[in-house]
Amino acid sequence: MNRKQIFSKTAKKILNTALSMAIILTMLTLFMMPVKVSGAETAVRPTFQPISVSVKGEGLSVSWKKVTGAVTYDVYRSYSRTTGFKCIKKGVTARSFLDKKVKSGKKAYYKVRAAAAKDRLLCYSKPVPGIIYRVYIETGHGTGIDGRWDPGCLWNGYQEAKIMPAICRYTAAYLKNKGVYVYTDAYTGNNRNLKWTLNQLKTLDVSVFLNVHCDYQYAPSGTLGLYRTAKQKKLAECLNKGVHKHVNIKNRGLQYRTDLATLNETKNCVACLFETGGIKADNTLLRTKYVVYGRGLARGVCYYLGIEW
Ligand SMILES: [Zn+2]
Hints:
Elements: H1 3-32, E1 52-56, E2 59-63, E3 72-78, E4 86-92, E5 96-99, E6 108-116, E7 120-124, E8 128-130, E9 134-139, E10 142-143, E11 149-150, E12 154-155, E13 158-159, H2 160-177, E14 181-184, H3 194-201, E15 208-215, E16 223-227, H4 230-246, E17 251-256, H5 261-264, E18 270-278, H6 283-288, H7 290-305
Parallel strand pairs: 9-14, 9-15, 15-18, 16-17
Antiparallel strand pairs: 1-2, 2-5, 3-4, 3-6, 6-7, 6-8, 10-11, 12-13, 16-18
Bound molecules: zinc ion (ZN).
Zinc ion binds next to loops.
């Protein structure tokens, strides 16, 4: 390096330092300058903070933050993000609303309208989606409408209607753990038989109706999923897949049936009658492996509904 080069290098260094300092000084000056506030009294247009939608019991809870100047709120729902919003509740003065009538297994969008006195529109929130899944687990047989006990199939003092509840309770527990809302008679001593349940089902909206049974004493060992329609077959396949992931039991496959009320009288949901095994051939397994069995059935329901396991 000659002198000239050394000189030019030093000059460059000085210049760079000076430049950096100038930038820092300018920034500091700008930062410390008082911000001028406009004195004009321009009205702030009221806006919505993002609303929130979450599963609560049988329905979806829509909640929001207070909007300045708002007196009432109207809640809107649509099954499309952009169009078809219908007012499902007008004049809410609270800051949340529980929508129990939302369809099961269908993505719904909610929008809230904030209004000042005399219903003067202030603003709408942005649409926010939510989804709820409802499932009915009907424990095979049990107490009928007439109050009489139907034990289902029998073997060696065992009753089908008394073995199935434990499996159903665990199916329900695993599903609840996935955020699914479950209707069932498994916690109340199997006190509702099929006829009772089918009547109740007319007033409910569920995605899946699972009817849990075991087969009679002359049946071979293994599972058997019963279906009639294509959708029911798909559900039966999913349940079978779920069960055989967790339970070490023979697989009798699926069977097409046209004579079962479970499959014929459940038009507004997808049903399956699942034979968990034979009351004689799989007796010990059914009575002792109810935790994994419940897990398997729950997993099958999740496969069908597309719920991540
Ligand atoms: Zn049965």
